[in-house]
Amino acid sequence: MEIKILGPGCAKCNKTADIVKAAVDESGVDAAIEKVTDMMTIAGYGVFGTPAVVVNGEVKCVGKVPSKDDVKKWIQ
Amino acid sequence: MKSVEQAIETKKFFLKISITGIVGIYLWWLLYGMLPQISSFLTYSLFQIDKDSHLGSAIEFFLYDTPKVMMLLGLVVFGVGIIRSFFTPERTRTVLSGKSEFVGNILAALLGVVTPFCSCSAVPLFIGFVTAGVPLGVTFSFLIAAPMVNEIALGLLYGLLGWKVAAIYMITGLLIAIGAGWALGRLHLERYIEDWVRQLNVAAQDVPEEQLTWPDRIRAGWDAVKEIIGRVWVYVILGIAVGAVIHGYVPEGFMASIMGKGSWWSVPLAVVMGIPMYSNAAGIIPVVEALLGKGAALGSVLAFMMSVIALSLPEMMILRKVLKPQLIAAFVGVVGSGILFVGYLFNLII
What we know:
The structure holds 2 protein chains of 2 kinds.
Chain A (H helix, E strand, L loop, with lengths): L1 E5 L4 H17 L4 E5 L2 H6 L7 E4 L2 E5 L5 H8 L1
Parallel strand pairs in A: 1-2
Antiparallel strand pairs in A: 1-3, 3-4
Helix pairs in contact in A: 1-3
Chain B lengths: L1 H45 L7 H31 L4 H8 L4 H14 L7 H10 L4 H13 L2 H11 L1 H24 L8 H5 L14 H36 L4 H6 L6 H9 L6 H13 L4 H13 L2 H7 L5 H25 L1
């Protein structure tokens, strides 16, 4: 599984990355997490706000820090 | 059967939340009313500081202002957090695309206040708006209003300087956002958007909209309080500490010579000083309060504050990724003129 966290590196983006990592660890899913900080690439996903979370190419959440339970649902 | 159970659950929830709400607001109000006595008791009776000393005056100011500001900020942030749960950037964009320019500017400024927005997502938001056909000037109205007129600024101004100054700030902030956005739209600067943005051809992602229930919204308000107070309390305390020192030690009328209304250059100076300073409303407003108390003119102080918040170098560097230097210069010029106008206006009429 491929998870991308889109965001230029603001506090909320880092928090999102931590939550995603924790969710992946806890549910034991095999996933590669990548932080995308380049604005052009982020814009290419058509998202409006950061942080955004993309799981296997599908945008799951935009402009807010997701809860750990949300992330677990997406990666199951 | 399930829907009946759900209805009962919802009813129970509302009953619980109303009772907690009423008790909470009563306790809040009670404590708020007792703050002057508490701070004066702590300073003069418990710490035994001389009533006429500079130190006593500074400490009493600090012990009164800190809890007062935190309480008001918490209340305003909670309310705005609930209001914001009704808005998303996607919905705002849908409303704004296809609006005529002038009406669009007004709507954009108003939506800028209530749409959840973090300055770190200014760039994707800008791209999202422009590629969806929101006019450039309307997009700017949104981007000016969103950081300038926010719940933190309003909560603090209300707490420290009263509702009149908070209302003046909100109204003039909105007028600058509307006017500057409209003027930028009239200048037809579309060619100064970076080329890669204009060539970008992406369909907006359809992220499934969540259905929020009232419990969700109240939780959103509460989360906003935790998040914002957790983020700004240090700045508020530092700001109030600086303010307390000014309050206790700087002689009355001292600021009148520098930021008073007598000197024509005080407003432009305030704007220029504000640009390199990057602070949020939380840190700057307690200082502003103390400056006002020492004779600084309201217009100069408003101009300083707006410049610090709306014209910041880091934000311009973020926007540089999507805007060419000419457009950034136009942005600073137009917004700066608006702030100058507000500064002179209030120095003149108050």
